[in-house]
Amino acid sequence: MPRRFATIQARSRRGRAALLVSLVLITVAVAACGRATEEEINQALGITPTPTESAEQIAAATERAESAAATREAAIASGSPESGGVAALAGNPARGQTQYSLYCLQCHGPAGQGPNILEPGNPAAAMTYEELLTLVREGTGHGVAPIPNYLVSDQSLADIHAYIEAQAGS
Ligand code: HEC
Fold first, then answer.
1. CA distances from 122 to 69, 119, 167 (A)
2. Is any atom of ligand 1 closer than 6 Å to the C-beta of 113?
3. For range 140-161, the mean pLDDT
4. Which of 11, 27, 70, 79 has a Cα-to-Cα distance from 130 of 20 to 30 A?
5. Does 84 score more than 50 pLDDT?
6. To test the ligand 1 pocket, which listed residue (144, 163, 165) has its Cβ within 8 A of the most ligand atoms?
7. What is the Å distance from ligand 1's center to 88 Cα?
8. Could you report the per-residue pLDDT of 39-67, keeping only the tens digit for each?
9. Chain-wide mean pLDDT for the chain?
């Protein structure tokens, strides 16, 4: 074999060896990356993981929420004052004045078609909250269409009732 050719072969063997070494190094490096913990990866990516709940935890939380809702529903059905039920709506006359001017004044004001229900001694002054609620919601004896909850809420009517009471006396 001519000497020159032998040298080229020897060089290319060294070249292959070097290639092999770098392949091994790359594999080691990749394997090292693979060993990064989830925490390290999250940190590197700036991710804050949301803690996941077990099926038992979810079931327990659902049960608690359902039982709380059932308790509240029962309390509302019984109208108990602690419950946030009808009887618990405490009227706020200051808020009621705003609500009144929004929902009642156009008819119950000076130029309106309805009677002045803020005048002391007028029939509205003697009405309870429940009576006012029935009149407004059902429209019976109101001369206007029923005003539904989504237009004037029960709480707004409690406030309006407190305002009428404050103005006209009960
Ligand atoms: C679209 C007009 C209109 C609106 C809005 C209106 N009312 Fe009336 N309301 C009337 C009329 C008209 C009467 C008189 C009905 C009758 O005597 O037959 C009346 C009667 C009443 C009465 C009975 C008064 C009485 O002398 O017996 C009360 C109480 C009352 N309204 C409360 C309210 C409240 C509270 C609101 C606001 C949430 C309201 N109304 C909104 C037109 C209206």
1. 41, 6, 11
2. yes
3. 94
4. 70
5. no
6. 144
7. 24
8. 887 788 887 777 677 778 778 777 777 76
9. 79
d(CA 121, CA 128): 14
Structure tokens at 94: 């200051």
Cα(160) to centroid(ligand 1), Å: 12
Q: Tokens for 69?
A: 């809702």
Cα angle 70, 91, 97; round to 5: 135
Instruction: Give distance in angstroms: CA of 85 to centre of ligand 1.
Output: 25
From atom 13 of ligand 1, which residue's Cα is the shortest distance away? Answer: 114
CA distances from 76 to 67, 80, 114 (A): 14, 6, 33
Q: Counting every residue, how long is the chain?
A: 170
Asked if residue 104 lies in contact with residue 151, where contact means CB atoms within 8 angstroms, the answer is no
Res. 85 pLDDT band, cuts 50 70 90: very low
pLDDT of amino acid 161: 96
Residue written as token pair 């618990």? 88
Sequence-separated (6 or more) residues with CB below 8 Å from residue 135: 127, 141, 142
pLDDT of 126 above 70: yes
